[in-house]
Design a protein that fits this description.
The protein is mainly α and about 270 residues long. It has 10 helices and 2 strands; from the N terminus they run ααβααβαααααα.
């Protein structure tokens, strides 16, 4: 079997099979922990728009997803399914970071491979919890917008690093603690503990995004803070959502200046329905 990291990434990204994605990630993990992998990039990456997701779940506009009440069995299953989809997409996002952006230091590929491995672990934990409820990933519709930002930033590693780890994933640092508290209050220790593992690892994922975003900006002679907000404005039209978990965001590399500016932007953003 190939230990070329780009070939393994391609085999993961361009198959619709969940099991094949997990197997490719495990194969890469074994190579990473063992004899290592090569970074031979003779073949250019395929388009991000051709990356495959499973045939199920059906991907729909988020407005068409049902509201999830954790106090009911059906609501708990729907919640877990939504988290599973986020984690499956996170596997794709981490592998695409590895696959799409060539010519970076080897440490960059080590970092994002480790993220892919952790996201696959998260997915397996959530999927296992779904099975405790006699359910499985793919049974319900899921959010189709999670991959769109990856396609929009496929041409620019700087934009990808700013917007995926430091916007999309960073939002999880803000909202997951409240989910854990609610599950604790409901006595669902099993689900709460899975979210604790995810939250712990996501701080590290966002921190990697911060570190590599700053690296690319420094290589290009660009101020990282100015560039970050320019990219948020360009791709998201400045729409950011608070409140922010300042403690976790600081742990993930956000500066006080960035947090202050984000809070100001969130207060100016139009309110969105929950």
């Amino acid at each position: 079997m190939s230990t070329n990291l780009f070939e393994i990434a391609e085999s993961c990204l361009y198959t619709p099979s969940v099991e094949a994605k997990l197997e490719a990630t495990e194969r890469a993990a074994l190579a990473f922990r063992g004899e290592g992998f090569s970074l031979d990039d003779r073949l250019p990456p395929k388009p991000a728009s051709e990356v495959r997701f499973p045939e199920r779940p059906e991907l729909v506009d988020p407005r068409h997803l049902p509201r999830r009440k954790l106090t009911t069995r059906a609501g708990k299953i729907a919640f877990l399914h939504a988290v599973a989809h986020i984690e499956l997409t996170a596997i794709q996002l981490a592998w695409d970071m590895v696959y799409r952006f060539r010519g970076m230091p080897r440490a960059f590929y080590n970092d994002w491979l480790e993220v892919a491995i952790e996201e696959a672990y998260h997915f397996s934990l959530v999927r296992g919890r779904l099975k405790d409820f006699d359910a499985d990933y793919g049974q319900f519709p899921a959010h189709r917008g999670l991959w769109e930002l990856a396609e929009e930033t496929a041409h620019d590693v700087k934009a990808r690093l700013a917007l995926v780890p430091r916007v999309m994933e960073a939002r999880g640092l803000d909202v997951t603690p409240a989910m854990i508290d609610k599950l604790d209050a409901l006595g669902d220790d099993a689900t709460a503990n899975i979210l604790r593992i995810i939250l712990r690892d996501e701080v590290g994922h966002v921190a990697r995004g911060t570190r590599w975003f700053q690296y690319v900006c420094n290589e290009q002679g660009i101020d990282p803070v100015t560039e970050y907000f320019d990219l948020v404005e360009r791709y998201l039209r400045g729409a950011v959502r608070g409140p922010f978990n300042t403690e976790l965001r600081r742990a993930a590399g956000f500066s006080d200046l960035e947090l202050q500016r984000l809070k100001g932007m969130a207060s100016e953003s139009p309110a969105r329905p929950d």
